Inverse folding.
């Protein structure tokens, strides 16, 4: 799973959101590091919809503009859980190895 | 529409038509929300991102389905147009009722048609304002009023009741269309399209009043062709929608048009005017046509649509999957 996909699913895991709210939430989650652009976002949304990982929740018209809210489907929830577990395992391995390096670096005889 | 929005729309032409039908309006909303006030041109990074994503959608790598969007958009448009037809027929009866009332005849026609005009005008107003649920609720009232009208005339004027029998069926179809629609018609047609449809309806009503009411105006045979003008304007407005929506509008509009046309054709072919009494055969035939026409026309339209889209998909080099 690519990072934009993971972040979009994470944004929708909290509550149904429309396109611009997803962009804002992803920016907030990543401390401004990732700011999705419309092309990238809608490529991800269209693919996730096609795969059944997200669904259309509802549509609203705000100031004569269409807002379509998307929500995480049951399959999307499973997919996000699997990916989260995979990332956690990898992070745990990295953390363990970094910890193992510290005494080596710090404790090396002068 | 601002210059910036127009430029974004132009950029979105990179996407395949089916993708635009599904996402263009919400993408425009996202793009416009994300720009600083005062910006006149899309940022190069945004433009590049759109072109890249659009091209990959065209190549099929990022393009899967937009389930339902085409049908729901088409349903919104056809529901409104069919409601306009219902309003129009009710107004025609109202004028007839007013004439009878002016001549001191009964007021039943006046009362019945006035209720229908009010209900269907409200349906049209709700649909134009984008109040889909309200429109569906009012269309339910429309179904009840049309059924009530047929029952009302069944006693005193059974032939009149039979000649109105297509109206509850069309009302039911309209209710179904409003229930299926998810987007306001103004969003589907855009501002110019909506204005063109409104203009066409207004023009058709004016022409009808001028040509057919006894206003004492001179009449020329050539005036008849003027009726093609609103039809032409309407066609141009509907052609401006994206191909998937346009094709679905064609299928649903055929169903709506087929109901009164098939019923009136049957009336003429069966020479109803020759009969004095309503026989069970005539009634049964009428009901059969009313039930079979929408189902058959929709099935045929759906088949033609599926086949043509499969061919179009092959020509474009990717398989389009719709609802």
């Amino acid at each position: 799973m690519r990072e934009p996909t993971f972040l979009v699913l994470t944004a929708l895991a909290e509550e149904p959101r429309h396109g611009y709210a997803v962009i804002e939430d992803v920016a907030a989650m990543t401390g401004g590091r990732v700011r999705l652009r419309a092309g990238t976002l809608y490529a991800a949304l269209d693919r996730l919809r096609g795969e059944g990982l997200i669904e259309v929740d509802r549509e609203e018209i705000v100031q004569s503009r269409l807002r379509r809210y998307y929500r995480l489907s049951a399959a999307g929830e499973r997919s996000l859980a699997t990916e989260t577990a995979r990332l956690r395992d990898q992070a745990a391995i990295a953390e363990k190895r970094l910890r193992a390096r510290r005494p080596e670096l710090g404790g090396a005889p002068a | 529409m601002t210059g910036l929005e127009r430029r974004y729309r132009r950029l979105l032409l990179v996407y395949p038509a089916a993708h635009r039908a599904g996402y263009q309006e919400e993408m425009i909303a996202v793009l416009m929300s994300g720009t600083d006030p005062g910006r006149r041109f899309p940022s190069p990074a945004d433009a590049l991102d759109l072109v890249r994503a659009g091209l990959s959608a065209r190549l099929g790598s990022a393009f899967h389905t937009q389930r339902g969007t085409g049908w729901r958009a088409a349903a919104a448009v056809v529901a409104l147009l069919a409601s306009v037809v219902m309003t129009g027929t009710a107004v025609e009866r109202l004028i007839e009722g007013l004439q009878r009332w002016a001549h001191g005849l009964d007021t039943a026609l006046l009362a019945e048609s006035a209720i229908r005009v009010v209900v269907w005008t409200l349906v049209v107003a709700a649909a134009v304002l984008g109040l889909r649920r309200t429109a569906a609720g009012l269309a339910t009232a429309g179904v009840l009023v049309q059924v009530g009208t047929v029952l009302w005339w069944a006693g005193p004027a059974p032939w009149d009741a039979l000649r109105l029998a297509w109206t509850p069926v069309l009302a039911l179809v309209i209710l179904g269309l409003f229930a299926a629609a998810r987007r306001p018609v103004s969003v589907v047609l855009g501002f110019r399209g909506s204005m063109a449809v409104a203009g066409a309806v207004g023009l058709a009503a004016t022409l009808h009043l001028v040509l057919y009411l006894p206003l004492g105006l001179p009449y020329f045979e050539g005036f008849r062709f003027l009726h093609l003008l609103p039809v032409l304007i309407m066609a141009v407005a509907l052609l401006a929608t994206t191909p998937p929506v346009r094709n679905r509008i064609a299928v649903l509009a055929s169903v709506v048009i087929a109901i009164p046309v098939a019923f009136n054709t049957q009336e003429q072919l069966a020479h109803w005017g020759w009969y004095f009494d309503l026989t069970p055969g005539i009634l049964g035939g009428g009901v059969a046509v009313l039930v079979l026409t929408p189902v058959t026309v929709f099935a045929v339209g759906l088949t033609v649509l599926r086949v043509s889209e499969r061919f179009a998909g092959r020509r474009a080099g990717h398989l389009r999957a719709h609802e």
